[in-house]
Design goal:
Elements lengths: L2 E6 L4 E8 L2 E12 L4 H16 L8 E5 L5 H18 L3 E4 L1 H9 L3 E8 L5 E9 L2 E4 L8 H9 L5 E4 L3 H12 L3 E3 L9 H10 L6 H4 L4 H7 L14 H8 L17
């Protein structure tokens, strides 16, 4: 057994899971709970308790997977910064996955799944997925948009769509009104990720510096391949403070916003 830790703090719901690099379908332990604006105070304690309950020492971890967002700017930063600290100290690889991908996996619906994350400012983080059984394939990139624009775009697809995500708490009416009978709102308890969904999302992530790309490597090689310093969050737009600086015409340092492919 080669355990790895997966966690996400991008929303008000904190989720953690422990998987096995030698068994993609195995979830050793998992926990999830609400933690509005409190991730920084509880995430490390939650990690400690989860590992202790599973009988896994921190030194035994062979990788860490973290949700890169999009979501709360502060929440995403807390998650990525915590994961970097853990992996630097343990000298294990740090890999990422999309927060919205984990929510899509939690939906448990076949067909088209539309995840609506809460982007604040009256906007949402929308993402479309095609789901079949345990397979969930992303069909649109991460971005920020108005609920009405998203509703119109998804209505134009002309097929049933399962809606999920915390953004529905504010914007479900807009989407349901435009989509009409094509919309099926997933039950509210499945609008947030679970530890099990995080483990699945970590395995499902594709590309370089992902769990699948380092699973067959030894610990040292995996650490170099997915070094913690390479991890970047998914923001999709400027933070409030950065936007204020931009509007004031002040100098903006490069690299404020990172997209789904981890490019600046």
């Amino acid at each position: 057994m080669r355990p790895f830790l997966a966690f996400d703090t991008a929303t008000d719901y904190l989720a953690l899971g422990v998987g096995d690099l030698d068994a993609p379908d195995r979830v050793i332990a998992a926990v999830d709970f609400t933690a509005p604006r409190a991730a920084n105070a509880v995430v490390l304690l939650a990690v400690e308790r989860l590992l202790a309950g599973a009988g896994v020492s921190a030194d035994a971890l062979c990788a860490v997977a973290v949700g890169r967002g999009p979501g709360s700017f502060t929440g995403v930063r807390i998650g990525v910064a915590t994961a970097k600290g853990l992996t630097h100290g343990l000298r294990v690889p740090l890999v990422g996955f999309g927060t919205l991908d984990a929510i899509a996996l939690r939906a448990g619906e076949d067909g088209l799944v539309g995840v609506v994350g809460d982007a604040m400012r009256g906007e949402v983080y929308p993402a479309l997925f095609r789901s079949e059984g345990d397979r969930v394939e992303r069909v649109s990139p991460d971005r920020v948009a108005s609920p009405s624009d998203v509703a119109a775009e998804w209505a134009a697809l002309g097929e049933p769509i399962s809606l999920t995500g915390a953004g529905l708490a504010k914007h479900a009416v807009v989407l349901e009104t435009t989509l009409g009978s094509s919309a099926v709102v997933v039950e509210k308890r499945r609008w947030v990720p679970t530890g099990e969904a995080l483990v699945a999302a970590a395995w499902a992530a594709t590309g370089d510096r992902t769990l699948a790309s380092v699973a067959a490597l030894d610990r040292a090689a995996a650490y170099e391949t997915a070094h913690p310093q390479s991890m970047l969050p998914i923001y999709t737009r400027l933070a409030d403070a950065e936007e204020a600086e931009r509007r004031a015409g002040r100098h903006m340092p490069p690299g404020g916003v990172v997209g789904p492919e981890a490019t600046r």
